[in-house]
Amino acid sequence: MNALYRWPATDATELHRARFARVEETMRAQRVDALLLVGPDHIRYATDFRAHLTNESEWFAALVWRDGTAQVFLPYIDETITAPYPELPWVTEVIPVASWSAATANPKTWVRAVGGAIAAGGSRLRIGVDSVDHGLLSGLAEHTSGVEFVAVGTELHRIRREKHPIEVTLLDAVSRVNAGAMEAALAAARVGGTDHDVLAAAMAFQQAAGVEFVTHSVCNLRNGTGDWFAGGRRFAEGDPFFFDIGCYGPGGYASDAGRTGFVGEPREEHLEAYEHLRTAHRIAQELAVPGARASTLLAACNEYLEGHGLGRTPYAIGHGVGLRICELPTLFSPGLMDEDVTLIEGEVIALEPETTVVVDGIETVLKIEDNFVVEAHGLRQLTVVPGADEFVAH
To answer: Start and end of every Peptidase M24 domain (predicted)?
Structure first.
């Protein structure tokens, strides 16, 4: 289907108010006067400004003050511009930094621009930072005497766990588009075709639907666990495979999902392993209610898989989804996450059990991944294939 998705209309003003209320509460709790952010997701959460995702946190920065105003540092301008965005009146100015290069590649230029804005805000400031490079922070400390920099990245991740209803609406929409992309990918798999063909079909669907950005795109055909990248391998009759794809929809909210498929008639052993994987996926879904401990989901899933002679999921069975493809909560094993949290109503998670089965001495990896919102009595699946009436031809 080559058509634009009918993305939902949402109240951007209400979403900004709700998100910044949490940000401001964190700033008060951490006793900071401003935040210096370089993560595109943190920048968007606090300011609504859409930073490019091409190079993650290396190109952009934002200085967000307690009163809600912000200055954004951009690589595609050559002079400071005041009141640049009428739709974002709290962004008071945009300030140039070195173009198309990591901040750490031009540290003096970056420190001069960002440090100047901090110094203009006053002395004896306390600034919260997310993931700013240590060398850049050292340079800022020298440039801004009397300013204290404190880490607040973990707190900023935590306040994003419980989603506002508008966030759930946006996550629902992008998850439906990603589900449609998965159907397109499955339909593209054929004997003689390649793993690249499968991923190309998924990306074509996502782009035609109007997503903001296509993220990861991997396909495991005759690869081991963790080695999931497409390599131009051709499908043969009976081949099992899986792919994992993601995208960001309007508003910057993400979907991360995957499917197992078969080309032609599958081997009985592969099909049986896949059915067990589906059962393990359902077990995790049934356990994922508000108050459930994160580690119990993986433990129950792996107990079932290993009880049927199959390989266990060797990584987290799931994670939060929001303005990042992967965010809190982490759903792993104790000792491999800072905190074995309990699920809360209103968060959006991905559940992604994996298993391996050995047939004729060859190990095959199978996987399923879907997105869900945690509601009062359990999960509601978001990765549901949209109907034709949800698109408009273009």
So the answer is: 172-375
Q: Are 240 and 199 in contact (CB under 8 A)?
A: no
Asked if residue 12 lies in contact with residue 48, where contact means CB atoms within 8 angstroms, the answer is: yes
This prediction has a pTM of 0.96
Residues 218-229: tens digit of each pLDDT: 999 988 777 789
Cβ neighbours of 79 (radius 10 Å): 7
For range 357-376, the mean pLDDT: 95
Given the DSSP bridges, would you call strands 61-65 and 213-220 parallel, antiparallel or unpaired? unpaired
Non-local CB neighbours of 272 within 8 Å, separated by 6+ positions:
none
> For the chain, what is the mean pLDDT?
95
Q: What is the 3-state secondary structure (H, E, C) of 96-154?
A: ECCCCCCHHHCHHHHHHHHHHHHHHCCCCCEEEECCCCHHHHHHHHHHCCCCEEEECHH
Q: Which helix (H) or strand (E) element contains residue 7?
A: none
Where do the domains of the chain lie? 3-158, 165-393
Answer whether CATH 3.90.230.10 is correct for domain 165-393: yes
For domain 3-158, give the CATH number.
Answer: 3.40.350.10
Sign of the torsion angle spanned by Cα atoms 101, 75, 49, 202: negative
